[in-house]
Amino acid sequence: MTPLSIHFLGTGGGRFTMITQRRRTAGIRLVYGRTHVHIDPGPGALVFSNWTRLSPQKLDAIIVTHCHPDHYTDAEVLTEAMSHGTTQRRGILAASRSVLQGNLPCERSISTYHQGLVEAIEELKPGNTFKVGDLRFRAVKAIHSDPDSIGVILEIPELGSIGYTSDTGYFPELGDIYKEVRLLIACTMWPRDQHLHMHLSTDEVLKVIENARPGCVVLTHFGMRMLNADPEAEASFLEECTGVPTVAARDGMQVVLGDNIEVRGSRKRDEPRIIEV
Ligand SMILES: [Zn+2]
Ligand SMILES: [Zn+2]
């Protein structure tokens, strides 16, 4: 069985975490065999890919869920890397309509020049699917200030499904959309007892977990208030309430899906957490 490695190159979200870099905003790298995919390459994606020795020239696809800078700023330089310094048309760029074409709140996030460097473009709307090697992705509904925003579900027959909410406000079908995924990556901007319009807080993630009953949850994309409240405490609260193993991501953390789910910290001395699911 080929395991899937999920590298949390950045775990920060929102304007103030981004501009202070209190947490990195480099997004997520998926590695499955020789297939590499970068999701939401915000500021730092290029630097921390190289720093982590995950060369961006290995990328086969870049996914950008919406037109906010903590999700897209490094997408253009990653297309230059994916196309091996613009020498080959290579890879897939999969993104919301706002990112590719612009919409009312934003202009296109990736220039037409850079869109021309890739082999294929996928414009993502809820329900659209696309494949990168053996990885099958499906765009799903999100409700956010960019009306074209999407979440993503990745399906791998031998490993199960992984959901990534991206930025979204809470709506009742969220739990149905991520029903029984093996791993749910929830962008949790704010902590308990606080509500941020068009984003998820701990209380709303609780409702999603109770409905979806995923095998395991990783919280990420933390805003300043979440960092002040302590993401680990929020994760423990959710795990206590729901019984679903819940982890707060850290910059440099790696999650490996195989027979079980192994959470590896960024430091060598960190004991991995093994989750049997
Ligand atoms: Zn964001
Ligand atoms: Zn956003």
List descriptors.
277 residues; alpha/beta; Metallo-beta-lactamase, Chain A; nine-stranded mixed β-sheet; eight-stranded mixed β-sheet; 10 helices; binds zinc ion
How is the topology of this model organized?
Layout: E1 4-8, H1 15-20, E2 28-32, E3 35-39, H2 45-51, E4 61-64, H3 69-72, H4 75-82, E5 92-96, H5 97-101, H6 112-115, E6 120-124, E7 129-132, E8 135-141, E9 150-156, E10 160-164, H7 174-177, E11 183-190, E12 200-201, H8 202-212, E13 216-220, H9 224-229, H10 231-242, E14 246-248, E15 254-257, E16 261-264, E17 273-275
This protein binds zinc ion (2 copies).
One zinc ion binds next to helix 3.
Helical percentage: 10-25%
Helices and strands, in order, run as: EHEEHEHHEHHEEEEEHEEHEHHEEEE
Mean pLDDT: 97
Q: What percentage of amino acids are in beta strands? A: 25-35%
Name of the CATH first level = Alpha Beta
Q: Count the E strands.
A: 17
CATH architecture: 4-Layer Sandwich
The CATH homology group name? Ribonuclease Z/Hydroxyacylglutathione hydrolase-like
Strand neighbour order, sheet with most strands: 6-5-4-3-2-1-15-16-17
Biggest beta sheet summary: 9 strands, mixed
| Distance linking N and C termini | 16 Å
Identify every distinct bound molecule in the structure, by name, code or SMILES. zinc ion
Number of helices: 10
What sort of overall outline do the alpha carbons produce when their principal axes are compared? Answer: globular
The fold-level CATH name is Metallo-beta-lactamase, Chain A
Low-confidence stretches: none
Estimated structural class: alpha/beta
Radius of gyration: 17 Å
As for the number of domains, it is 1
